[in-house]
């Protein structure tokens, strides 16, 4: 199969892998810088990461990795359906980030000795930007799968169950035929030549 036929497949796989990395990063990057003396969840904090504020970045990173496996394993229309699901996830992540629900946290508790508020919490751009980048990567992968998923190459016969294989065409080279039979899990010494 020409490399140009495999390009959409590898674009989708790479986009999903990068989305997983971006979401994992978004969970550990700072989303809010808090003023000194702020107590959050019983701890004195200076910053709040995405993992402190919301629970969804890591599960969605794992979903992106699972989607890589599904992209490689599924065929035809099932890949297009996966693409539509990934587009929906992309929209959902963007809504979660831009909707501001991640910033609904009580920052009014002060540590002893910090009776006055020395400043206001400030939102950073790094964590949300990583999450939005992941949403964009999810959208790229979803669009490619929805558009070209049914035409992308599939796993070859050597990855299918033995009952799924169709008659193998012999190449005319006995050595090559023996090696191909071994690769497919057959015992070339028991078949008739």
From TrEMBL:
Q: Which UniProt keywords apply?
A: Membrane, Transmembrane, Transmembrane helix
Q: Where is this region: Disordered?
A: 158-193
Which chain regions cross the lipid bilayer? 56-74, 81-105, 125-147
* UniProt keyword Transmembrane helix present: yes
Show the InterPro entries listed in the entry: Trp_biosyn_TM_oprn/chp
Q: What is this protein called?
A: Tryptophan-associated transmembrane protein (Trp_oprn_chp)
Q: Which organism is it from?
A: Saccharomonospora cyanea NA-134
